[in-house]
Records
---
Amino acid sequence: MRIGIVCYPTFGGSGVMATELGMALADKGHEVHFITYNQPVRLDFLSHKLHFHQVLLEEYPLFQYQPYELALSSKMVEVVRKFNLEVLHVHYAIPHAYAAYMAKQMLKEKGLDVRVVTTLHGTDITLVGSHPTYKTAVEFSINNSDVVTAVSNSLRETTNKLFNITKKIDVVYNFIDTNKYNQDNQEECKRVALAAPNERILTHISNFRPVKRVEDVIRIFDKVHKEIPSKLLMIGEGPDKIKAKQLVKDLKLSDAVFFLGNSTEVPKILCYSDVFLLPSQTESFGLAALEAMAAKTAIISTNTGGLPEVNIQGKTGFLSNLGDINDMAKNAISILKDDSTLQSFKQNAKDHTRKFSLENILPVYEDLYKSCYLAK
Ligand code: GMT
């Protein structure tokens, strides 16, 4: 099929998921067109099946805020017409679902009927979308999409609770290409460069926004470090990084905590990890946790949002109440205390990712595209 994908091109989970989906669809022979303001960070190749169309904005002194939705919907119309696209799959409702609705109306006037699939990712519903500033337009554009999907049961329930949704929402879990995390295929995982042989490695990856509670990450690690020789890798960039660095200094952990910035080499970094810390305030799914599990890493997380659908209590890791850093530290120590316990959690984590494999999830999206296109 000929599919347009609209997403944020950044390190955020929705952009990563959209990019992985587009690349997988192109691998299967579909023609995929990314439409966004920058080349998505994980889009590492362009082939005749994979295209990128940049949305450019015009500066004008009158605009305090540049009208991105307008530029995006115009670009969608242009690309759909030029490449005869059948489906526009928009990731993250704000403002993509609204811009897609506008594009669809403009195309209708030209006798073209493109189908719009909207995937809800989390904060577009929980933190931002339901705010009175955006709620009316978000609700309207969800209800006017041809197909709506959510990345977990929890997100579907929350969407139905917060909005007046007249459309059926299909749950399609985020997926992982397990081949990219096959450690046997990796030339080397130079663990020794980061930690001594007797040390455990804990990892956190996020956008360091308040919802990720990075200070909890440091405080949990502080407690673990007091009991178990260990190092913490902090990957990502964002507003709370400064606070996290300050806390590391205050707790005298500077020799044990490394801030590595944003990375496109997530599988390589995760190959070092024993335990992944995700004490988020909320997480509709927790793609970073799934990536960690694929790299054989046990998960210590909160029990909020969709996390219990990904991290299985006592099997792939443990889940605690929001803010309960003592419980999270205690659980991490119980996993890390001996090699055989750690190995069994790591293996369970890896095994559980089969449920979210590319092979299982990709056909679900393909069927959705086909059925909504045929329902014309
Ligand atoms: O805040 C983030 O983590 C980024 C955000 C995004 O939309 O890019 O992530 C959301 O979508 C991810 C992919 O579906 C989910 O795995 C994350 O759980 C979700 N974040 C939240 O719900 C906070």
---
Amino acid sequence: MQGFDESTIRDVVQSVLGQLNGEAAPVAPAESCTAKPGESCGCGCRKGKFGVFQDAAEAAAAAKDAFLQLKPKGFAARAKVIEIVKGLCSAKAEEWGKLELDETKIGRIEHKIEKLQVISGIPGVEWLKPMGFSGDHGISMEENAPWGVIGAITPVTHSIPTIAGNIINMVAAGNALVVNPHPGGAKCATIAVRAFNEAIAREIGIENLVSIVETPTLESFDALCKSEHVDLLCVTGGPGVVKAAMASGKRAICAGPGNPPVVVDETADLAKAARDVILGGGYDNNLLCIGEKQVFVLDAVYSKFLDAMERAGAAKLNSRQIEALSSHAFTSSGDGGGCSKPVLNRDIIGADASTLASRAGVSVPEQTMMLFGETDAEHLFVEEEQMMPFMPIIRVRDIGEAIAAAKKSEHGYGHSAMIHSLNVANLTEMGREMDTTLFVKNGPCLAGLGSGGEGYGSFSIATTTGEGITTPKTFTRFRRCVMVDNLSIL
Ligand code: NAD
């Protein structure tokens, strides 16, 4: 029988393990392979093959090369890329949704799938409209030019959907991307990016239009911030990464954290308000940055609203059970100065309501979408962005107290807020006071991103830096091209 050397056996084992994980089989570079990292070589090795890199600097360089190749191919090539990304997200919604849930272990399978299906509605090249001027002195055209390579930092809460949405917006505007995904969702992100690049290479002959760091770290983030090839950052995540990006010296579009409050006044349709809070706050187990996180209800309808929540299928916890859940949801960490501050327990974010209930010492039916209970406005579940389906409900005297408490709980993030009311003055007052990017009246948070409300969606809502719900235009540079002459034929 023929003997095998150690490296052959290692290659075979690696290949089998890769295939079991749903990855394209990694192949060692052939001896004859002279390609530099990031170059297409044809021997099938993983030196940057189809956008997947170990090294952030190499990933950025390959994306720059891809950007230069995209430029002369025009709008038709950009539109083809978008068609590919939307098509793959629809076709693979179930497979990739399951992959993402298996890896991240947070959220709900039906919503992981749905978040990939709604990618088809994200705006593409049609969004970019030039503006023209014509007169006695000639013509001017204002156009939306690309930046070049955009460094995209993506969250664990929606790993593949954020990357897919970013690709559509950014490539529509003529850019290439280099992605530093959250380490907790990097495997599924890499699988999707490889699939996008394979199809893009096949259709338009560019290989690393979306490059990704396969094993992301804080160092790889740093390398992207320092890379001469990265022209702009787009960060989607919590306060830590937003702060780091803004301190990097590169221009950054920051889709930062939220802690969206809800106000329910005495004129509201309480049954609908309860259903909307459960739908929005329970979506993907409250992982959405726009998701309802705490509800301030006027005294006059407080008890009725609690009843409406139960009738709509949410399960009520008593104060002892809420405290038991809090002790699992938050820990304290010393800041070195003798003070301690609450830290969200990442192990139970995005857990099912039934899992949270068992931590609270109670059993609820498995299909329960949400737990809720009475707390005061200072409770940790109100202060912190909990990202789990427990909804604190706070009793307030009047609309003034409700809006003030809602504003305080939002921490000035300027992200999202909701109100349920038929009183126009209350709707207007809260909208003015909150000054948030999204403000939804009489609907679930999802309506703010075009799901059950008017408008379009995105998985990166640039709240911190103010660009708002990102579109292709967000990722362009303004350019005016002027021709001075006697051109008018009027
Ligand atoms: P996270 O901040 O833990 O991670 C986001 C990304 O930043 C990841 O890629 C992570 O690896 C990286 N990162 C984290 N800290 C970093 C640091 N100090 N330096 C460099 N990189 C760092 O967030 P998450 O848990 O993945 O996602 C949830 C958070 O993101 C919530 O706060 C949510 O509100 C926010 N979010 C906002 C939007 C939006 O559109 N505004 C969308 C989704 C999520």
